[in-house]
Amino acid sequence: MYANEKAPQPKLEGGTHYQYEHLNTSMFDCADANEGLEAAVRKKREAVQVWNERVQAFRSQTDAAIPTCGFKEHPAFADLKSIIEMIFIGAEEDETGDYVSGILSKVSKDQDGTILFDGKGRKTLHAWIDAARRARIAASERGDIAGCGLADQNFQLGSYLDFIFWEGGPVSQIPVSIAVREAEYG
């Protein structure tokens, strides 16, 4: 559009005449957005590399599962935590962190590198999403506001996880997906 140029201004009268005089149009510059995205992807891949090295070092010492609290260092932890905080409004910070660690501790990969969640594939998560959607509808019909809200939270979380873990498409555009998909889980 108007890369760093002054956009056409509306003709206003009265005390608001100068209100829109100097609009910041830098947000319309697509090159800046692409550079920002590339930088975010690069940073996330560096964090994944550090994580993978730590997992390999851990694997060289033991075959035990990575402790759940160790997933607070996972490169997708902060991104997933912010998603969970958007969905579960009012949740305590420690509770949210533990929940995200639990989610990440359930991620694994099949022999061919396909993401598994709790040892199961995408169809199981789709069943969970469908059950949450049906529960939301049933609770809404009963007038159960709390039940409807809880079912909706589960539906939203399942939908986010489906997108982050498996959704086809340009994964390079989604740093959290890169962190989940390229990380090692032991």
Written description of the protein model:
Helix 2 packs across helix 3 (93-105). The chain has a two-stranded antiparallel sheet. The protein has helices at residues 30-61, 77-87, 93-105, 122-142, 145-165, 175-182, and strands spanning 107-109, 115-117. It is mainly alpha-helical. The N and C termini lie far apart (47 Å).
What characteristics describe this protein?
single chain; 186 residues; mainly alpha; two-stranded antiparallel ribbon; 6 helices; 2 strands; 57% helix; 3% strand
Portion of residues in helices?
A: 55-70%
The unreliable regions are 7-28
Which structural class matches the secondary elements? mainly alpha
**Percent of residues in beta strands:** under 5%
Could you describe the largest sheet, including whether it forms a barrel?
Answer: 2 strands, antiparallel
**Run of helices and strands:** HHHEEHHH
Count of discrete domains: 1
Strands in their spatial order, largest beta sheet: 1-2
What is Rg?
Answer: 22 Å
Please tell me the overall pLDDT. 82
Q: What is the overall silhouette? A: globular
What is the CA–CA distance across the termini? 47 Å
Number of strands: 2
**Number of helices in the DSSP assignment:** 6
